[in-house]
Amino acid sequence: MPGKGESEVGPQAQAVQGRLKAWLRPHLPVLLLALGLMLLQSGATLVQPWLAGVLTDRLLLDQHLGTLLWLLFGLICAQQGLGYITSIQLQKVSGKLVADASAELYAHLQALPLAWHHARQRGDVLALLSGDVHRLTGYLTGIVLPLLPLLFTLVGALVMMWQLAPAIAVMVAALLPLMFIVLKLYGRGLRPLAHASAQAWADQSATAEQNLESLPLIKAFATEQAERANYRARADAIFDVDLRLARREGVINPVVHVVGAGAILLLLGLGGHWVVGEQLRMGQLVSLFLYGMVLIAPVSTLASVFGSTLAAAGSLRRLQEAMTASPEVDEGEQEQIPAHADVVFEGVDFTYPGREPLFRGLNLCIRAGETVALTGINGAGKSTLVHLLLRLVEPQGGKVVIGPFDVRAYRLQALRSQIGLVAQQVLLFNATIADNIAYGRTDATREAIEAAARAARAHDFIAALPDGYATVVGDQGVRLSGGQRQRIALARALLRDPAILILDEATAMFDPEGEAEFIEACRDILAKRTVIMITHRPASLALADRVLRLEGGRLL
Questions:
Q1: I want to staple 509 with a disulfide (CB 3.0 to 4.6 A). Which of 113, 136, 342, 483 is the partner?
Q2: What is the largest CA-CA distance in the chain?
């Protein structure tokens, strides 16, 4: 009976293998074409030593060489031409595979719950998209596909040697398995180093991404030197593990070439005696020597397969862990939130992993068109209520209802597209102000964008900018002030004209005058929809029909 690990990992591995096959299937014709071209190239490689031997014999006999020379030259040209065409086809397939796999992986990562992303370093996730996909697709097209032509070359060279000198072919054939066994045993030490190298690169990527995002904080606290030292430590860790990996991998090729060269020299010495004894022609000796040289390339390449396979196995494990993670449950069928819908939390239980329960049987009813303000200390669960409504997290008990339906009855996209959110942490893209306001509403007209900006009291400062609505805000809106970023986020939410509007500390960065203007402008806007407002500011609380305090998992 399979153990627990097998029963859990087996289906996951099968699922990932299924995805790999699905990625490869559309490209099978080109892959088969490339495989056929590589086999032809191997055939041309195998014919050349035989022709060189015939050429040598005819040269010694002073026979006409023109035809043979042209034939040998034609084979060399054909071999190189086939190599060029093959490399282009493989590059085409490899590039398309990377594009297909990256796009599907990215879509899957977007569909995973926020909790999955919060449990991982962002650098690890970025490494999946940038490093692991490239490494795995490169392994499939650069290592796995050429294996058959390499084996064909290897076996073909041994067969040709058998035709020329069976005793020498037997000695070479006996040496090859011994060499592979030694290399395989030696290659076991590469596995932990390959894994450590991939993790070191992911750690450095995560550190760089985090530090660049936190640059204002780093400068404000004058910790540049400490962060430089931290990043240097990550870089040194990569240097250390990659050097150890290179040393271990670097032994393989020299060993193969030294052993191969020794075998060829032994072959020449033995063959030379046979030539003197007239048991072997000089042309046959030349052919044997060249077939020995031909053998070194596939043996060396096959030896390096161990390291490449271990690196690809590490990438496959990380992709397997991501691709088999369960996406957000989206089984709802309802497309439209009713125009006048109550929002009800019925007996909701919720606990974050590893923490005390946050809510136990929480009940809350927000009537359609009502504005409810939530207050409470940090960590009381105000934002969690919002996340439950948006299904960014799921309750362990009870349910959240909008109108006549549980929120799980709505399609996720339909649910979230009809709820406007102005989050406490404003997220803007490195795009124009107009693009940021219209995010999620790509069909919005310029008039609608400006109307939303006016309602959010953002139009005046936008119009005063040199490029107006075409101003690029920079990463996370770094070229705007905190209050300006918050007004852009508010305009973005208002543009969607949502049935339900969530304002999570939406006026936190407004000055008193700006907050007063916003409140005055929002009275009519808020009156037309259901509003959940998270705030502690008295002026904003004045907009609420009810003010509730969340404390100890209960509403007071």
A1: 483
A2: 111
**Nearest-angstrom CA–CA distance, 346 and 359:** 11
Helix, strand and coil percent figures for the chain, each rounded to 5: 65, 10, 25
Q: For residue 408, what pLDDT is reported?
A: 93
Helix (H), strand (E) counts: the chain? 21, 10
Task: Select from 3.40.50.300, 3.90.1150.10, 3.75.10.10, 1.10.10.10 the CATH code of 343-555.
Answer: 3.40.50.300
Residue 484 confidence (pLDDT)? 84
DSSP characters over 423-491: -SS----SSBHHHHHTTT-TT--HHHHHHHHHHTT-HHHHHHSTTGGG-B--GGGTTS-HHHHHHHHHH
Q: Indicate where the chain has its CATH 1.20.1560.10 domain(s).
A: 16-323
**pLDDT score for 11:** 56
Return the CATH number of the domain spanning residue range 16-323: 1.20.1560.10
Element (H, E) at 422: strand 419-422
Tokens read off for 293: 């040289």
Low-confidence ranges of the chain (pLDDT < 50): 1-9
pLDDT in tens, 57-105: 777 666 566 677 778 788 888 888 888 888 888 888 888 888 888 888 8
Q: What is the pLDDT of residue 62?
A: 60
Residue from 372, 486, 514 nearest 425 by CA: 486
∠ at Cα 212 (206, 216), nearest 5°? Answer: 140
- Read off the pLDDT of residues 223-252 as tens digits, 9 standing for 90 and up: 888 888 888 888 898 888 888 887 777 777
Rounded to whole angstroms, the Cα distance separating 450 from 460 reads 10
Question: Which residues are within 8 A (CB) of 135 and not within 5 positions of it... i.e. 6 or more apart?
Answer: 311, 312, 315
pTM score above 0.85? no
Query: What is the per-residue DSSP string for 153-216?
Result: HHHHHHHHHHHH-HHHHHHHHHHHHHHHHHHHHHHTTHHHHHHHHHHHHHHHHHHHHHHHHTHH
CA-CA-CA-CA dihedral for 462, 463, 468, 472, to nearest 10: -10
How far apart are the C-alpha atoms of 365 and 344, rounded to whole Å?
A: 4
Instruction: Identify the sign of the CA torsion 491, 496, 498, 501.
Output: negative
Per-residue confidence (pLDDT) for residue 470, from 0 to 100: 92
- What value, to the nearest 5°, has the Cα angle with vertex 521 and ends 518 and 522? 80
Question: Which tokens belong to 420?
Answer: 């406007």
Whole-number pLDDT of residue 409 = 93
Q: Is 394 helix (H, G, I), strand (E, B) or coil?
A: coil
Give the pLDDT of residue 3.
44
pLDDT at site 342:
92
CB atoms within 10 A of CB 453: 26
Our CA dihedral for 487, 492, 496, 500, rounded to 10 degrees, sits at -50
